Amino acid sequence: MASKLGFMSVSATHPTPWDLWVDYQRCDEEGLTHADVTHARDGLVLKIGSRLIVGNEDADLANAEIVRVQDGIVFLQIDSDRVTQPSK
After folding, report:
1. Total structural domains in the chain?
2. 73: domain range?
3. Engineering a disulfide at 83: which of 14, 62, 63, 67 sits with its beta carbon 3.0 to 4.6 angstroms away?
4. Distance between CA atoms of residues 87 and 85, nearest Å
5. 11 and 46 in contact (C-beta within 8 Å)?
6. Within-domain flag for 84
7. Rg, C-alpha atoms of the chain
8. How many CB atoms lie within 10 A of CB 32?
9. What sign does the dihedral 35-66-42-2 (CA atoms) show?
């Protein structure tokens, strides 16, 4: 069931160099990356169409656009040309 909310506000998280923590490998068949709303920086308003900085500890930061927010999941279109992950 799709949410009728066009946005979601986040109330408490830890300070980070990114707006939203993502696992770049958590993608679907549409090419959208999924992130959990609880991984957003404190005070961020998750609104469809908004652009934000995403990242994690093991990869570079990237720009992303929020496509939808549904059931606590943020669906993102990431500028994948800007993401590089070091080999492990």
Report:
1. 1
2. 10-79
3. 62
4. 6
5. no
6. no
7. 12
8. 19
9. negative
- Residue 2 maps to a domain: no
Question: Euclidean distance between the first and final Cα of the chain, in Å?
Answer: 38
Task: Give the CATH number for residue 57.
Answer: 2.40.240
- Residue 88 lies inside a defined structural domain of this protein: no
Average pLDDT over residues 23-52: 95
On whether the CB atoms of residues 20 and 39 are closer than 8 A, the answer is yes
pLDDT, greater one: 22 or 85: 22
Chain centroid to CA 34: 7
Q: Give 20-35 pLDDT, tens digit per residue.
A: 999 999 999 999 999 9
Shortest CA distance to 76 belongs to which of 60, 87, 40? 40
- Is 85 within a domain? no
Whether 87 has a pLDDT exceeding 90, the answer reads no
